[in-house]
Amino acid sequence: MKRQLLSAATALLLAGAGALAVTVPAHASTADVSVSFAGTVALDDCSGSVVSFANSSPSDPALVLTNGHCLESGMPDPGQVIVDQPSSRTFTLLDASGNGLGTLQADKVAYATMTNTDVTIYRLTNSYADIQNTYGISPLVMSESHPAAGASIEVVSGYWQTTYSCSIDGFVNQLDEGNWVWKDSVRYTPSCNTIGGTSGSPVIDTSTGQVVAVNNTGNENGESCTVNNPCEVDANGNVTVHQGTNYAEETYYIPACFGPGNQLDLTRAGCGLPRP
User: Fold this and answer.
1) CA-to-CA distance for 266 and 276, rounded, in angstroms?
2) The domain containing residue 59 runs over which residues?
3) pLDDT band at 4 (very low <50, low <70, confident <90, very high)
4) Which residues contact 65 (CB under 8 A, 6 or more apart)?
5) Quick check: is 200 in a domain?
6) DSSP state, 67?
């Protein structure tokens, strides 16, 4: 898992050193879009992004996407699903160059789990219109399509203010890490050498500018199926280990789980998130 383990002081020193300035239209639909930090956020130990869906309205409460293992109350147990949990967590909103614009605050954990996927979705006290009017920042849009093998992607870390560029190498039938199991995970090509603190970073398809996955883990030292050393399990149960390889969890089935007003409804058609 790519949660931050370094001290806050070290993080501040390094965060300003590796910034890549690129620009991402929130609702891009043409090829060869550029990618920036606009709309990403920094948590105290992880990365994240302000996200919306195709059916979201400007007046809807904004949502922040990060990992399940970044949840402030601790990592959910295998099989545990958390919905509508009060939260007062804060996030630093970034501009296109990675500069902090201000603080956003959650009022609830709309959804969190580490079962089949690794995701937390926070509901903010701000609407999308509030954020646009105050900071000039639009949300990143979550794709409703399964990502494609070979697609060019950017992993954008608000925590480190660093962008990793690579391609989707392929998909993993099952990714096991410690006691957790994730399904149909994204495997990166080697140049996305993500580190601690990049957990929760949006994975953006550069052909659309949309979020297709959320960065979450990598095999650090070659161990098999242990924490920070996930293993791949194919459909026949064969286990392989790829030291130095990093992964993300797909998000295409999340938009269907939210109805009008960005209200979570896990019974909606097409919703692929586990239920409590």
Assistant:
1) 9
2) 36-143
3) low
4) 48, 49, 51, 119, 120, 121, 142, 200, 202, 211, 214, 251
5) yes
6) -
